Structures are given as structure tokens and as C-alpha cells.
Amino acid sequence: MESNKTAISNGQTVKEMQRLQAILDSVSSAIFEISAQGDILYANQAANNMFGYALTEFKQMCIADLVPERYRKGHQKHLNQFFKSDRERDMGEGEAFPALHKDGQEFFVSINLKQSGNSQQNSVIATISGSSKLKSAQQELDK
């Protein structure tokens, strides 16, 4: 009878994981889990839609690969500072940042960072929203 409970429990866990994955994939913002070294540990379907990479490709990438070349040098330093600060933060407080699509096109995003709370991995959750319209409006205001 005990093994039956385990089977039911495991079945519920699988269903819960599938439900959670469906929720994460229905969100319009890209969600990444990033290690302290900058490796992409997880990406949702919106990340695929936004950046053009297959979900399996993300797992072989570093988050800096999504940053235009001219900004990569300092990116790991900023990531290290975030891990030391241990707090949630909106990068640039509403500013738009350039990101790099698989096809080489740059586009603008807004980024929110938060420690993951994953006790097995020191990681951060990055929520990324496209903000090209925001950047265009900002550039018009700056003229």
C-alpha cells in the first residue's frame, strides 16, 4: 500500500510540474534562471519567442550571449554585484536595455532580477519584457 501512495504522490508531482510549466510558458515575459557564473539554467517559451533560440540552445548559452558585443565586457561584473547585494531589482529603474536576437538584430528590453530561492543552486531569476516601444518613445522625447 505504501508504494501506491508513492506512485500517487509522484503522479501528482508530475502533474504539478506540468501545470507550472504551462503557466510559465503562457507568460508573455521571458523568464530565465541564471547561475552565478552567468549560465542559463532555464528559459521559458517566451524567451524562445523573444530571442529566437530553441529552449535546448539556451541551456548551452551564457546570459551574456544575449547582450550586444559592445556591452558584454562589464556584464559579468554587474551580475556578480547583484549576487552580492541579494535583493530584487529593476535594472535601470524602467530604462530600456539593448538585447541581441539570434538573427543579430538588436531590440530593447526591460529587466527585473530576483534571487531564485533555489537552495540547490545559487541563481537569479530574470524577467525580461520587450520595450522597443518604450525606447522609441524615450528617443522621441530626447529630441
Report what the structure shows.
This protein has 143 residues and is of the alpha+beta class. The protein has a single domain (28-142), classed as PAS domain (Beta-Lactamase). The protein has helices at residues 2-26, 45-51, 55-58, 69-85, 132-142; strands spanning 30-35, 40-43, 89-90, 97-100, 106-115, 123-130. Strands 1, 2, 3, 4, 5 and 6 form a six-stranded antiparallel β-sheet that branches. The longest helix is centred in the N-terminal third of the chain and has 25 residues, at 2-26.
Strand elements, count: 6
Cα end-to-end separation: 73 Å
Main beta sheet, described?
A: 6 strands, antiparallel
Radius of gyration: 18 Å
Fraction of residues in helices? 40-55%
Low-confidence stretches: 1-7
Given helix and strand content, the structural type is alpha+beta
CATH class: Alpha Beta
Q: Which band does the percent of strand residues land in?
A: 15-25%
Tally of domains: 1
Output mean pLDDT: 79
What is the tally of helical segments? 5
Shape, per Cα inertia axes: globular
- The H/E string reads HEEHHHEEEEH
User: What CATH architecture would you give?
Assistant: 2-Layer Sandwich
